[in-house]
Amino acid sequence: MAENKAFKEIINRKAKFEYSFLQLFEAGLVLTGTEVKAMRQGLANLSDAYCLFDHSNLLVKNMFIAEYDHGTVYNHDARRDRR
Q1: Taking CA atoms, which of 14, 44, 60, 67 is between 20 and 30 Å from 35?
Q2: Which residues neighbour 43 within 8 Å (Cβ) at sequence distance 6 or greater?
Q3: CA 82, 30, 64: angle at the middle one, nearest 5?
Q4: What pTM, to 2 d.p., does this model score?
Q5: 54 phi, psi to nearest 5 deg
Q6: C-alpha distances in angstroms, 42 versus 1, 4, 8, 36, 79?
Q7: Is the Cβ–Cβ distance between 34 and 26 less than 8 Å?
Q8: Following CA atoms 20, 7, 46, 28 in sequence, which dihedral angle do they give, to the nearest 10 degrees?
Q9: Looking at residue 22, what is its pLDDT?
Q10: Could you tell me which CATH class the domain 28-72 is placed in?
Q11: Which tens digits make up the pLDDT trace of 15-56?
């Protein structure tokens, strides 16, 4: 039987105080397996992240996802650009 797992959301609360939002958008990220596992452990940080448009893609720059503890040589780069 499948378990109901709680949905985890990463929010940059500090950004709401430092900036005024004109519009809000919701989007998904392309992540590797070790990034997903690290995020489930709570090892993600959005405090220095920002977004840029690259042609038709929206890139998230400087988002920090710590390396997965049990990752091998195929572990991800902690500050790579994400789509």
Answers
A1: 14
A2: 65, 66, 68
A3: 45
A4: 0.73
A5: -120, 100
A6: 25, 18, 9, 10, 16
A7: no
A8: -80
A9: 92
A10: mainly beta
A11: 889 989 899 888 888 888 888 888 888 888 888 888 898 888
